[in-house]
Amino acid sequence: MTEQIVSLDVTDVRFPTSRELDGSDAMNPEPDYSATYVTVRTSGGAEGHGLAFTIGRGNEVQAAAVSALAPLVVGQSVPELLDDPGAFHRRLVNDGQLRWLGPSKGVIHMAAAAIDNAVWDLAGRLVGKPVWRLLAEMSPEQLVSLVDFRYLRDALTPEEALDILRAAAPGRAERTEHLLAHGYPAYTTTPGWLGYTDEKLVRLAKEAVADGFRQIKLKVGADAEADARRLRLAREAVGPDIRIAIDANQAWGVTEAIERLRPLAPFDPYWIEEPTSPDDVLGHAAIRRAVAPIRVATGEHCQNQVVFKQLLQAEGIDILQLDASRVAGVTENVAILLLAAKFGVPVCPHAGGVGLCEMVQHLAMFDYVAVSGTTENRVIEYVDHLHEHFTAPVTLRDGHYLAPLTPGLGAELHPASVADHRYPEGPVWRESR
């Protein structure tokens, strides 16, 4: 009998990061980093793990959305799914009734992300490869078959995507060797959470440089005087040669963003991240024109590949920050990487959270090996918490992500961590009440 997916389990897992204000920013002052954690199992005994990232309340809504999609997954033939993952993905995001809840946005789209990520984790485990390598060894034709071009053709055609991938193909082996030897550049947000004291900011910024990071990031947006003070302290701590990115987390309107950035310019911020609503394509373009040479970056809340397409067409961003679980998983992110390559915009993935570092490294490394062919002006975000809960946590050395060798996507949580942090019945939450 053909191997099938026989179950899809979803668990509401939450970590009490609000207690130390880890993850705090202008719009999310007390987050509890959480995972809508998905496990798919096959009749042959294999498993795949994926997740969507949330920040506490509402994770139960995200879990319910995953459960609503489960009938589209359970019973699927594993060989057929792995032979044509693009077709599976299109069925997942285009259900005739559930699509209405998006379409292709919000909770239902993030539910598709958790499932799609779990299926790619399963695929990697079945062939014994990390997902970055599984993708990087696919043919250009196989990769293009993953992409739904219906709403992209005015910006990227299948023929153009094939040209991009074929142009990168001759250097794949050499870049794979370089990646395995040297890793992929990272930057850290660990010093910059808005709830941290000035002393903690300075200490962590200096530690980041000592650990080999050449870029750090600070949260801004709550108080203008505090923004200037904290950025000045960070610049004094790291010196003139370390890049400092800043992140407003959507705190400002368009005009306000331009005004608030002017007094910060003397401290040479490398980029301003999420300066305004993530849906305001023309607003990002206006800010970008006004604040240059400060770069404009966004993407962690970008709903789907169509909005990324528009940001690129409107010249609204200098840095594209894709996310592992905001759009519909690995499959849609392949399309976004191809769009970025077409427009020549560097990709610096959003990470941190729960499991985002573990998953998103695969996307950036695949991009380097098989799509863009470069790491110039490209870095993956890194946040130093919650990795201990994963069976294959990220490994960094001298400010670089080391290429993962474990098969799959890296999203598997330790069973004990799931049991302890299951909401609301896990002991971590029972003891806090």
From TrEMBL:
Domain named Mandelate racemase/muconate lactonizing enzyme C-terminal: residues: 198-294
UniProt keyword annotations, A-Z: Lyase, Magnesium, Metal-binding
Record-level Gene Ontology MF annotations: L-fuconate dehydratase activity; magnesium ion binding
InterPro entries named among the record's database cross-references: Enolase-like_C_sf (IPR036849), Enolase-like_N (IPR029017), Enolase_C-like (IPR029065), L-fuconate_dehydratase (IPR034610), Mandel_Rmase/mucon_lact_enz_CS (IPR018110), Mandelate_racemase_C (IPR013342), Mandelate_racemase_N_dom (IPR013341), RHMD-like (IPR046945)
Cofactor(s) for this UniProt protein: Mg(2+)
Pfam families for this protein: MR_MLE_C, MR_MLE_N
Catalyzed reaction equations: L-fuconate = 2-dehydro-3-deoxy-L-fuconate + H2O
EC number: 4.2.1.68
GO terms classed as biological process: amino acid catabolic process; carbohydrate catabolic process
Protein name according to UniProt: L-fuconate dehydratase
Origin organism lineage: Bacteria, Bacillati, Actinomycetota, Actinomycetes, Kitasatosporales
